[in-house]
Amino acid sequence: MLKESQWKTSTGFILASAGSAIGLGAMWKFPYMAGMYGGGAFLLMFLLFTILVGLPLLIMEFIVGKVGRTYTTEIYSKLTGKKWLNIIGWNGNIAVFVLFGFYSVIGGWIVIYIGIVLMQLLHVLPSKLHDIQFEAIISNPVYTIMGQFIFIGLTCVIVMLGVQKGLEKASKIMMPLLFIFLLVIVAKALTLDGAMDGVRYLLQPRISDITMESMLFALGQSFFALSLGTTGMITYASYAPKEMTIKSSAISIVVMNIFISILAGLAIFPALKAFGYEPTEGPGLLFKVLPLVFEKMQYGTFFYVIFLILFLFAALTSSISLLELNVSNLTRNDNTKRSRVALLTSIAVLIISIPAMLSFGSLSHVQFGAGTIFDNMDFLVSNLLMPLGALATTLVVGQLLDKDLLIQGFGRDRFKFFYPWYALVKYILPFVILAVFVLQLV
Ligand code: PFF
Predict the structure, then answer these.
(1) Which structural domain range is residue 407 located in?
(2) pLDDT grade, residue 6 (50/70/90)?
(3) Residues near ligand 1 with C-beta < 6 Å?
(4) 27, 94, 98, 99: residue to mutate for ligand 1 pocket, most atoms within 8 A of CB
(5) How many CA atoms lie within 13 A of 317 on its CB side?
(6) Does 5 reside within a domain?
(7) Looking at the domain assignment, is residue 141 inside a domain?
(8) CATH number of the domain encompassing residue 231
(9) How far apart are the CA of 25 and the centre of ligand 1, in A?
(10) Number of domain units in the chain
(11) What is the mean pLDDT of residues 393-417?
């Protein structure tokens, strides 16, 4: 294990894994998914899945990383002696590669928005926030490819700098700031006319909105938002100091993630009702609604730029973990190869991100399976590869690993939480994930 590949402190590890978890999933994807699948009903299912399925799985991934301490295309054979099980690590690598491909499209939109709003702020552009033409921007391949290039480039540079220097420092400053900003936006959104309709839409579940489809997407969302099933969290835990506390780290990440998702919903739905948008607006929801909220604030353009920069940062701390997973496996944690591999992987990601980006423009008519190319990439990762990876890991942990090793990985446990957690992972969660997985294929 290379020294450089370790977090200096437990706090560094928690912040970085929270950084990986909290990103576009909570802030961009959650509100639009909730809008498409019933508002309050979606939130309720998301909460249940996150707490009952996501949290135990996150603890599981942390334990695997902590006791395995190596890259994830090696860790499964190291722990079980079965080489073929490393395929689970490869599944995760493919998942994050494709994920980065469509993630960078949205990252690119944020970059473009920062450019436009900065120009408005500096009066280079005479327009106002409400003049920003979302559809025209995202269907323009020149703008979007520039945005993606910058987003992927930034991710690449941070990963090249190495684990400690790049990731740990950055996470410590920006996440708390983002949280404060979200609170301010929510406070403003709640003062808009008709805001309470939006609040009710998000917080009052209508049982009739709970369908098989919405359940599948709610589970997919809890996987996506906690970075589960890709072995990304296993990688981060394998870098952590031995004394890290697994339970409290996992709980704090889950709580933060839930908070940010709800805050993002509370920022968007009241505004959406106030400005007469439909909740089923899709991926553009956040980009269309928030400028209108900021416009109602004093110095709104200025604050919107700051918000977008923080939002970009949240997306970057997640995209870093996507690229980091590929780099750690392709270099087998050999830091002398880090820069070259990070660069080549980033170029490959840029290439596969192009069809995803064109899904909002010249390739929007290409529809199959789950929808556009972009939708299918998301579906493949969030609803197939991630649950599959998580299912396989529950089987390894529940059936093959030594219980004493797991107890040791779980750490000191005054209240004997280990046992219910173990029972869940061994006897219940594999069936839950399998059931959802099969239903989805049917
Ligand atoms: N959890 C991230 C988000 O919500 O934006 C996305 C993600 C990052 C998923 C890393 C998977 C992963 F391995």
Answers:
(1) 10-440
(2) low
(3) 20-21, 23-26, 96, 99, 224-225, 227, 230, 232, 318, 321-322
(4) 99
(5) 32
(6) no
(7) yes
(8) 1.20.1740.10
(9) 7
(10) 1
(11) 92
23, 169, 397 from 322: Cα distances, Å: 12, 18, 23
At 81-118, the pLDDT tens digits run: 999 999 999 999 999 999 999 999 999 999 999 999 99
Do residues 89 and 76 lie in contact, with contact meaning Cβ atoms separated by under 8 Å? yes
Q: What residues have CB less than 8 Å from 397, skipping those under 6 apart?
A: 60, 63, 64, 406, 425, 426
pLDDT per position as a tens digit, 37-87: 999 999 999 999 999 999 999 999 999 999 999 999 999 999 999 999 999
Place of tokens 């190291």: 78
Beta bridge partners of 371: 368
Q: Distance between terminal CA atoms of the chain?
A: 44
CB 396 within 8 A of CB 76: yes
Percent helix, strand, coil in the chain (nearest 5)?
Answer: 80, 0, 20
Q: Is the dihedral of CA 302, 307, 310, 315 positive or negative?
A: negative
Residue 332 in tokens: 């087998």
Residues paired with 368 in a beta bridge:
371
CA distances from 365 to 98, 108, 148, 441 (A): 21, 22, 22, 24
Q: Which long-range contacts (CB under 8 A, 24 or more apart) does 129-132 make?
A: 129/291, 129/292, 129/294, 129/295, 129/300, 129/301, 129/304, 130/291, 130/292, 130/295, 132/291
Phi-psi region of 192 (alpha: psi -120 to 50; beta: other; left: phi over 0): beta
Residue 305, pLDDT score: 92
Give me the amino acid identity at 336. T
Residues 6+ apart with CB under 8 A from 71: 89, 235, 238, 328, 329, 332, 333
Residue 2's pLDDT band (boundaries 50, 70, 90)? very low
Structure tokens at 366: 């290409």
Q: Is residue 370 part of a domain?
A: yes
Q: Is residue 34 part of a domain?
A: yes
Centre of ligand 1 to C-alpha 394, Å, is 19
For residue 63, the one-letter residue type is I
